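Hello forum,

I keep getting stuck at the same step: I have a sequence, I want structure tokens, and every attempt I make locally crashes halfway through. Rather than fight my setup again tonight, could one of you with a working pipeline run this one for me? It's a single chain of 168 residues.
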Amino acid sequence: MDLYGVLKHWALKVLRTLNLVMLRLKWLLLLFCILPLKLMGKTKSDYPISFGHIETILKDYKPETVADFLPYLPENLLKSFTLVPQSASSQGSNSLNPRVIHFNEDGKLILTYNGHPSLKGFNTIEVIEFDNYSNRFEFRQIDFSTKTVSEPNPRKCMTCHVKDYPRP
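Reply #2:
Ran it on my machine without issues. Output:
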């Protein structure tokens, strides 16, 4: 087998391994986030959510971590997600601990977080919400470590998401 064949063989093995890891992460998300919601009956799958709802969850239930917060979100938001194994955002990720991006059906609300304490931005949620009145996106960050919620469009977000006309 020549060098190209060896490299191709190992590249395919790595891709298969990554696919298995991503599949396992999806099952873990289903097992630990979505399934308990059905059993506990904490959420309804059909109600829309906005940043106002998120603020209410934070105020009423006082979750201390991202993991504490997730069960209060509606099922339809938790079921719509993508996993990002590499990210240049303020939330780190890698192939074993990807960044999770949830979005609602109309794409007007996006939540992101990662799940490993060694990664940059752990225990924070980034929120992007489209405001129909201003016809713009608003960015916020919820930091469970400091128990703070940023004002709309903080400088940290606008560094990458364009200050004049913010977008995901």
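The chain has a mean pLDDT of 80. If your local run keeps crashing, start a new thread with the error log.
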